[in-house]
Amino acid sequence: MAAADQEPHVSEVRPRSYQDDSYRRGFLGTVGDLQKAGVLQDVVIEVEDRRFPCHRLVLSAASPYFRAMFTSGMTESRQETVLLQGLDADMFGEILSYMYTGTVHVSLDKVQPLYQAADLLQLDYVRDTCSSYMVMSLASSTCVDLYNFADVFSLYIVLLRCRQWICRQFVKFVSSEEFCRLSVNQLTYIISHDELDVKEETTVWEAVVRWVQHSREDRLHHLPSILPHIRFNLLNSDDTAAILDHPLVREDPGRSVIRNLVKGSSNLPGRVGMDSLEMALLFCTSSNEILYMNPRAGKYISCSYDCESLRSAEAITVTSNNDIYVLAEEPEDCDHLYVLEYNHASNMWERARPPSVYVPEEKNCFGVNNYLVEVDGILYYLYVLSTESSGSVLIRKYNWHTDQWQECSPLQLREVDVEYMIVSSYGSHIYFLQNTEMHRYDPDQDRWSKQTPPKVMPHLCTAAALGTEIFCADHEFTNTMVYNTESDCWQRLRGWRNTGNSNICYTPNFFVLENQLYLLLERLNTALDTEEDSLIFVYDRASDAWSSRGMKATLPIKEVFQVSRHMCPVARMYLPCLKGKDMDK
């Protein structure tokens, strides 16, 4: 056969599988439509005298419980109506909605019965979702209920987080009514923890006294079993004598046993709260590292984290409860930001309860800046939109009860200089500050009001609140001013001192540590050969001067950056929990 008549060589085509994602997405929608229309339903589930027409196939596909019921020859497999015991009818309705849509709706008032229903029907996703929601809902008003519920259902992660939350919020928690609802086993377990956040062991004793006196007749006999968990070796002789002379000890029939316990206390370690320190957080530009520092104490600890989102951090805030939140880009959706929370006990960053928040895009707008602040326990997300002629500050607050971000009153601006603006919270207000415009937001009234702007700081760079004042500086640190929040007036302070090297440019960053104002000068032109990379000073208001005496003035790392527009967050850190490289030596 001639070469021209030969068939062309065809390489072997291997078998492949093709997946129709639109079919998969549409299948549940079709099934849901059939359920709404009441078509092809072949079984009725009766719960608390309410009847739910359903499809056996859908129930069996979604739940191992129903699959066993309808396929194993049980009596229910042949019945047209199946009675379910031990379920709440409303919760079964929620479960049924999940089975037909794949979406589960969780709220604080129904998370526990919803978990119980999911546990009975063996719905792992709903159980896990409820467990995660419980962890995110921890507060003084919910902790004991969630603790007890998790104990009954052996929810280890919820139990662990409840205990961690109570340990970290111990001082605040013991003053609540919920504290007195703890069982004796729960109380002894908590006060036996090294992670208890207390500065003095007397706090633990005072908590025990409050718990006993809440129901003295029923609880006094528990005292001998509770006291071994108080670390009397951490008390001085006067405190120990005061405990031995306390009416609870003197009047208790077993006081001789108690006295022996107090005198024979073992050499137990200190609590984690006894070794805590206020520290500023500096993010490293080239890695997922954070430098925790207290210049006056000469303490510098660098920690690395397995959290890529830290590199995309847009804003950060430290709350009055010492919670640290970061706003970062969603890994697969840059139009949304999500909230990361720092877990003090495990020294890890985790996704927080607030849902992702959408960053709006508006026509002809540019230069979006993001801020995250806390006022009276509420998180606020602010973002600034700028046009060629004007701008606006849009604000949302997070509602912990509804688990939603809510729109607040926006602020309209005459002009916006994206590079030189500051958002700061002080007291019960939020301040938006530019050179020519200053406004204060009142959350209670959901209203913005005009304040007096500085007018002499065109390149506004950093701000920090101390006492009743807000300290500000420009980008070159030639202008430093202080704003009095009570009198709505500004005062000039001394500016930058000359370092003797005019070729070195620094960016100023203010932060308040242990009730003192600090200045971090970050060198911009790091290529220059100089030992002065980033310098730290503390401000003396009496002399209106900056000093580096008595502290390590130069940072042990070169590359740092501040999220939230040159605002350096400060938090109380638990040194035993910081697993990092100690750089203070």
Quick structural summary:
The chain is of the alpha+beta class and 585 residues long. 25% of the residues lie in helices and 30% in strands. The protein folds into 3 domains: 21-136, Potassium Channel Kv1.1, Chain A; 198-270, no CATH class; 273-582, Kelch-type beta propeller (Neuraminidase, 6 Propeller), CATH 2.120.10.
> Structural class, please?
alpha+beta
Number of strands: 30
Output the strand order for the largest sheet.
Answer: 29-4-5-6-30
How much of the residues is beta strand, in percent? 25-35%
In the predicted model, the low-confidence regions spanning at least 5 consecutive residues are 498-503, 526-531
CATH level-4 homologous superfamily of the largest domain: Kelch-type beta propeller
Global geometry: globular
| CATH architecture annotation of the largest domain | 6 Propeller
For the largest beta-sheet, the strand count, sense and barrel status come to: 5 strands, antiparallel
By CATH, the topology of the largest domain is Neuraminidase
Provide a count of the helices. Answer: 17
Question: N- to C-terminal separation?
Answer: 87 Å
What's the rounded overall pLDDT mean?
82
Helix content: 25-40%
Total domain count: 3
- Quaternary state of this entry equals single chain
